[in-house]
Amino acid sequence: MFRIPSFYEMPEMTFEVAKGVLIGLDGKKDLLSAMEAMNARWEEYCKSSFTDTPQYEDDDEFFDTWQYEVNAYNTVFEDMSKLFAPAK
Predict the structure, then answer these.
(1) pLDDT per position as a tens digit, 35-86
(2) What is the pLDDT at residue 52?
(3) Which of 35, 63, 73, 75 is most buried (most C-beta within 10 Å)?
(4) CA distance 69 to 65
């Protein structure tokens, strides 16, 4: 999950909207691949923070650019994690 600054959080996002936001990201046709693509964007940003030419100036710029996608990722992650929760 992404640790999204509160300014960029979208708690009202539904699973259906989140799915629509993610599918198609980087040409991915399934939800898992799209989530992996979004996670790869974050990892690439983190790596670029240590180079002379970072892709984004700071976390705020990253989240400003990708606020819908990171919120969609978290929404899908939270909903899907219920499938793997231990039985009570």
Answers:
(1) 999 999 999 888 886 766 678 888 999 999 999 999 999 999 999 988 877 7
(2) 66
(3) 73
(4) 9
